[in-house]
């Protein structure tokens, strides 16, 4: 379960659906995201939680707000999420600009609320990072964030992107991050496709380009990457698992901003969830399997030597499928 508590204050190049122009489609103008207060969101979440506990149902429930942890009630949310499912970390790119003293106070409260890990993303060294994030001073904000996290005894988890535009900065950036105080983990990963924004292909490597990167950078990347043709053959051969048609173990996302709260409170939780489950099952039944998509798009640009993840291929194939099935939002599968 999630809600939109505050918009991100960056317009990062890999997330252009917010900032202006990308290869993917954006949320329709007639159905914008709705801001929701923490109080309204947690009231809904508590009703679900109390119901599942009273019934003794074995149902996993998560709860988080977005885009950034700047909205009133965020520390209460951290406490509730920890109590609910043990969440002890959050991402903070795109948060409002803060002084060092303000950051120190923020992360003192975050630790008191149960936070133990803080996630930050660095796109490059200072000038490039700020350009990528479309916000002057963002690099220094993230650095000061990492320092405040360390001062309060929490762990930093830094993500950097393995992409064409970031390549010239990665070695210097990682060396800089390794010199920051405190406990940390540094990961490199590709810029993944999203449901609404496909990664610009100028950011992708060929295999030869990827293998020419320093080994220590490649070792930080835990995503398997291959060509479109290779992933097509991999999926067509059924050498993976997906959960699209696993109706015995359903998972779904409820956005409080999309709920009719009057209707929710006018019915029992069982009645409301019956509708949610029915809609989720129908969505999955109308969604083609990954094998079907691999067959449908078997010839789509498979002469390309660019590298993708399996997650990328699902996002691309379902983006293409949505262009010929307007109004239908498919299920996005867990793939393994």
List the helices and strands and how they pair.
Elements: E1 2-6, H1 16-19, H2 38-55, E2 64-67, H3 74-85, E3 89-91, H4 100-112, E4 117-122, H5 126-133, H6 138-151, E5 155-162, H7 167-178, E6 184-190, H8 207-211, H9 215-219, H10 228-236, H11 261-266, H12 269-285, H13 290-296, H14 310-323
Parallel strand pairs: 1-2, 3-4, 4-5, 5-6
Structural class: alpha/beta
| Fraction in helix | 40-55%
Could you tell me the mean pLDDT? 93
Number of helices: 14
The secondary-structure element order is EHHEHEHEHHEHEHHHHHHH
Main β-sheet, spatial strand arrangement:
3-4-5-6
Q: End-to-end distance, in Å?
A: 23 Å
Largest sheet: 4 strands, parallel
Structural shape: globular
Strand content: 5-15%
Rg value: 21 Å
Count every beta strand, where a strand is a DSSP E run of 2 or more residues: 6
Q: Uncertain spans, ≥5 residues at pLDDT below 50?
A: 17-25
Describe the structure.
Residues 8-161 form the Radical SAM core domain. It comes from Eggerthella sinensis. The chain is an alpha/beta fold and 336 residues long. It is built from 14 helices and 6 strands. It has a 4-stranded parallel sheet. Strand 5 (155-162), helix 7 (167-178) and strand 6 form a beta-alpha-beta unit. The chain is globular and about 55 Å long. The protein starts with a strand and ends in a 13-residue tail after the last helix. Residues 17-25 have low confidence and may be disordered.
């Amino acid at each position: 379960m999630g809600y939109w508590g505050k918009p991100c204050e960056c317009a990062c190049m890999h997330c252009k659906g917010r900032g202006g122009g990308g290869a993917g489609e954006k949320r329709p103008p007639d159905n914008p995201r709705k801001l929701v207060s923490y109080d309204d969101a947690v009231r809904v979440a508590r009703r679900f939680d109390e119901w599942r506990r009273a019934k003794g149902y074995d149902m996993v429930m998560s709860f988080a707000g977005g885009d950034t942890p700047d909205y009133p009630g965020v520390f209460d949310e951290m406490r509730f999420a920890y109590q609910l499912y043990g969440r002890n970390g959050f991402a903070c790119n795109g948060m409002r600009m803060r002084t060092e003293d303000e950051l120190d106070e923020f992360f003192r409260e975050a630790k008191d609320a149960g936070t133990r890990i803080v996630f930050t993303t660095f796109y490059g060294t200072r000038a490039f990072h700020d350009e990528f994030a479309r916000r002057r001073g963002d690099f220094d904000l993230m650095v000061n964030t990492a320092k405040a996290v360390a001062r309060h005894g929490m762990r930093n988890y830094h993500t950097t992107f393995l992409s064409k535009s970031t390549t010239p900065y990665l070695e210097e950036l990682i060396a800089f991050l390794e010199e920051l105080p405190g406990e940390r983990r540094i990961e490199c990963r590709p810029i993944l496709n999203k449901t609404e924004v496909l990664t610009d292909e100028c950011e992708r490597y060929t295999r030869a380009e990827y293998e020419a990167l320093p080994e220590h950078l490649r070792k930080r990347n835990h995503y398997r990457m291959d060509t479109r043709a290779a992933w097509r053959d991999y999926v067509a051969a059924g050498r993976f698992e997906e959960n699209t048609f696993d109706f015995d173990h359903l998972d779904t996302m409820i956005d409080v901003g999309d709920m009719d709260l009057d209707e929710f409170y006018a019915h029992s939780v069982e009645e409301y969830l019956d509708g949610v489950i029915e809609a989720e099952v129908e969505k999955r039944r109308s969604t083609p399997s990954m094998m079907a998509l691999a067959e449908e798009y078997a010839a789509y640009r498979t002469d390309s030597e660019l590298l993708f993840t399996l997650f990328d291929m699902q996002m691309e194939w379902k983006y293409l499928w949505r262009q010929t099935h307007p109004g239908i939002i498919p299920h996005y599968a867990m793939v393994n």
